[in-house]
Amino acid sequence: MAIAMLREGTDSETLFRQSLQKLLAVVRNICQSPENAAFRHIPKDNAHFHADLGQYPGGHQCLLAMGFKELQQGDETQPRNVFVLEEPDLSEDLDAWSSWFDELKELQSLVESKL
């Protein structure tokens, strides 16, 4: 499990909890504003992401386990790796969107239970 990798990858319980709090903030923001694409788009080279979560083994895996995909954006001269969580189209498939959102809420509860 990705959270277990994160626990092993941090040097202390304090760092593990700080990383989980960052992960929880990501999930909470998406749950509170699922329509806001900015919350579902995390540049891999973002300094805050790297400091709080991305630098640890298991940090990237946690995002991937949540459904984020690692993509390359930009052009060939300035490619940028980002983590993107795609939202199903609510107007086209209410059931898919509802399942997606329910899974996010379950992930939020799971992360909260690990703190």
UniProtKB/TrEMBL annotation:
Annotated transmembrane regions: none
InterPro entries according to UniProt: PUB-like_dom_sf, PUB_domain
Signal peptide span: none
SMART domains tied to this protein: PUG (SM00580)
Pfam families for the chain: PUB
Residues covered by the PUB domain: 17-90
Designated name of the protein: PUB domain-containing protein
Organism: Phytophthora infestans
